[in-house]
Amino acid sequence: MARTARAFQQVTRSGLAATYSAPDASNGETIPNDGKTILHIKNTNGTPLTVTIATPGTVDGLAVADRTVTVPATTGDRFIGPFPTGTYNQPGNVLNVDYSSATGATVAALSIPA
Predict the structure, then answer these.
(1) CB within 8 A of 62, min separation 6: which ones?
(2) Rama region for 100: left / alpha / beta (φ>0; ψ in -120 to 50; rest)
(3) How far apart (Å, rounded) are the C-alpha atoms in residues 73 and 89?
(4) What are phi and psi of 106, to 5 degrees?
(5) CB 8 within 8 A of CB 110
(6) Taking the model in full, what pTM does it have?
(7) How many CA atoms within 13 Å lie on the side-chain side of 2?
(8) Mind listing the pLDDT tens digit for each residue in 22-55?
(9) Distance CA 59, CA 32 (A)
(10) Which residues, including other chains, have CB under 8 Å from residue 73's CB and lie 6 or more apart?
């Protein structure tokens, strides 16, 4: 199945009331990445949540390992990023993000201005 597209929200000096929604754990997501993208993930489920950001790049012909981050159970809260474009971007300048579960999880993709 195709990944679900998640748009990022632009943080401004006047403030951002970010919108959070459940991740697509079944299909994964694509998120635009301009090198200033940060994911904010909250987990209220009783089990930890694993977030995987795919790294399509190679160094000297060796695959770069995917980035995995564990968001703790119950009151877990993690900011992840930013993501250098040369290491993490898939074709189309997006991140491919997978989640171990959607139960109790909410995500906001944020872009921090330079």
Answers:
(1) none
(2) alpha
(3) 29
(4) -135, 150
(5) yes
(6) 0.92
(7) 3
(8) 999 999 999 999 999 999 999 999 999 999 999 9
(9) 23
(10) 43, 45, 46, 47, 48, 49
